[in-house]
Amino acid sequence: MKCPKCYDRLLYRRETNVRGVNIDICPKCRGIWFDMNELASVLGDRAEKIEKIPLGAVIQDHSCPKCDGEMHMFCYPDTMTVVDMCESCLGFWLDDKEWKEIYHARSEIKNDFACPKCNFLQPKTDTCWKCGIIYSKYKKH
Question: Most C-beta atoms within 10 A of its C-beta, which of 35, 48, 93, 97?
């Protein structure tokens, strides 16, 4: 597979400490590709099961390195870390350091902010993970 950010670099496979999970890493930008469910497997009980692209996700200008599908950008649940997810194969691309941000943020989850539209409790973010509104554009009627 080729790196979706560097385009000219091939990803190399690396074993993780989770049995049966191999990730793909770019030698240039250090981005990481996780096939479907691999990110959840590596995160273990810290994982958020994501089975579809959330509302409000932004379509990226690069394609999926695995299936050439459309990539969408959004904040990983319970974090402020922006990730890319393929709409077709449900794989994740994490830029350098995003893995560590997600890993550490997931251990410090605090659901103390209520969405002004649907009252969903979550950490303070720019968008609601449940209804998808962007807070800066939402006006209470």
Answer: 93
Domain residue ranges in the chain:
12-109, 111-141
Q: How far apart are CA 59 and CA 87, in angstroms?
A: 10
Read off the pLDDT of residues 11-42 as tens digits, 9 standing for 90 and up: 999 988 777 889 999 999 999 999 998 888 88
Closest CA to 55 of 39, 77, 33, 36: 77
End-to-end CA distance of the chain: 49
**What are the DSSP E strand ranges found in 38-91?**
58-63, 70-75, 82-86
Contacts of 60 (CB under 8 A, 6+ apart): 70, 71, 72, 73, 84
